[in-house]
Q: What sequence folds into this?
């Protein structure tokens, strides 16, 4: 059974836990939906980990091993061989977003909805990713090298690099915004389509007799759209969010070769003068 939309998308029931309306108001449908996805993600991970030592490998374990191997290879190619900590982060993001999107196909009613259809969740996830990326950039490049990264392209003279610095800062600020809006827009768009299909059915069907006659066709169209939107679009968006996370970690190392080269040249000059 597929539950059609009965209220306009983007309407979230809220709960206020303290006096400050901005800081203490929560969309509890998003909290419930994301909580379910978190529990499922932890359950899958802990269940597979338990079976590693207490049973035969199952299909789910093999799928997760293939996923981890793929992410591990992507991390080595796009970031570095010594950045293994990115693999569990990227895998957790993929599984969580995937399950959060797939919940929309189950015959669940409000307040359970796709968690990523709330910009608050996708923005929080994007900010968390970018904060870790900034930490990694400082850890790899040092604080001086981290600031130098905002003056790329490094082959330009100093005046040109100063001109590009504001653009690089804007690019860094835009990363979490684009990451959040891409996921939110695609999932929210799916809810809008379901709402429009519901409005179209009620508007064009007219009488209850005609609605009864056309309801099988409407259900088929709705199920077909849900299959396409949830399992194809939802999976692709989970993969894109994970892939961009890895790419951003790779971009956080920009200037590492030049930074090490400049440091080595400085040390060589220091040895020559002494």
A:
């Amino acid at each position: 059974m597929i539950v059609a939309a009965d209220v306009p998308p983007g309407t979230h029931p809220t709960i206020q836990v303290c006096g400050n309306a901005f800081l203490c108001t929560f969309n509890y449908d998003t909290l419930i939906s994301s909580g379910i996805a978190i529990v499922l993600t932890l359950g899958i991970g802990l269940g597979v980990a338990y079976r590693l030592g207490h049973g035969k490998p199952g299909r789910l374990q093999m799928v997760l091993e293939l996923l981890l191997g793929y992410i591990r290879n992507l991390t080595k190619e796009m970031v570095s061989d010594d950045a293994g900590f990115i693999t569990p982060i990227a895998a957790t993001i993929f599984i969580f977003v995937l399950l959060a999107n797939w919940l929309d196909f189950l015959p669940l009613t409000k307040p359970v909805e796709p968690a990523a259809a709330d910009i608050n969740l996708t923005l929080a996830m994007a900010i968390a990713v970018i904060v870790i990326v900034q930490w990694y950039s400082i850890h790899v490049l040092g604080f001086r090298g981290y600031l130098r990264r905002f003056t790329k392209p490094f082959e330009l003279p100093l005046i040109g690099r100063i001109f590009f610095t504001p653009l690089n800062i804007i690019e860094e600020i835009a990363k979490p915004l684009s990451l959040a809006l891409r996921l939110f827009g695609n999932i929210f768009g799916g809810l809008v389509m379901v709402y429009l299909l519901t409005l179209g059915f009620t508007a064009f069907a007219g009488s209850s007799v005609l609605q009864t006659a056309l309801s099988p066709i409407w259900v088929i169209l709705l199920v077909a759209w849900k299959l396409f939107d949830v399992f194809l679009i939802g999976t692709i968006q989970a993969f894109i969010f994970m892939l961009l996370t890895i790419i951003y970690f790779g971009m956080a190392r920009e200037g590492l070769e030049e930074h090490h080269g400049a440091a080595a040249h400085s040390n060589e000059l220091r040895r020559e003068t002494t």
